[in-house]
Design a protein that fits this description.
Length: 320
Amino acid sequence: MTNYLEFEKPLAEIEGKAEELRALARQNAEMDVEQEAEALDKKAAALLEDLYKDMSAWRKCQVARHPDRPHCKDYIETLFQEYTPLAGDRNFADDHSIMGGLARIDDRPVVVIGHEKGHDTKTRIERNFGMARPEGYRKAIRLMDLAHRFKLPVITLVDTPGAFPGKGAEERGQSEAIARSTQKCLEIGVPLVSIIIGEGGSGGAVAFATANRVAMLEHSIYSVISPEGCASILWKDAEKMREAAEALRLTAQDLHKLGVCDLIIKEPAGGAQRGRDQAIENVGKAILGMLDQMSGMSPTDLIKDRRQKFLDLGSKGLAA
């Protein structure tokens, strides 16, 4: 069953009518409705293209949060071979919102780390909706140390509304864990590639995305705060999230212009949720391409390249 977003309601009506016609034909073999159904299919395809052309920032937010988009687990299972998960931060617990371990991509050994939101009510609760606690970031630090020691590239898949804001997380040093993870990203002498596959929310995303190369899926978002949170602070009204989304410049297209994002990965028509296999394949090609760009670079050059990328942030936007 397709989950339709608010702005996709006209599309839902057309696709629903086409499916109703085909359901009637299945019940009555004498009915010939295929020509009418195909006409509706063409109308739906044209509308889909129109809806996803020149989208507003708020619509991009809705698509980035779509529950049917491929999640970290889907990418790992499809793109990586011999994935061996590693659990725990060797201090407090294992955070199930963070997946990570050793794997191969195109026969290259790597360490992969990512936020996992879950795909149904049970797994979303288990994964805490992709919101990591301190032990999640400390697990990521442990895996990055492992990658550095064995000279393995690190690939991070970012999809989080932000770090978990609960009382226990704060008591266990949430902000310190995020800062340490960000610092570790800057210190490791191996290629570090980060892909924003859905939401890149606040410090929870920066802790994984302080990378040599940052790529974003076409309809993903990356921001210091959610539009709703921004609207609540600036206008004292969360309903002004549309205005906040525009002001935050959180889309892949805006961030590419500003130099925050190095590469925009194209999504299938209607977003990654409508073409999951193609979206995952596109991400795999992007990862391999970015790793190829850094092949042969020394640890010192990789660290220098990464630090310089973030020191230069803002200059591109100011020049524009």
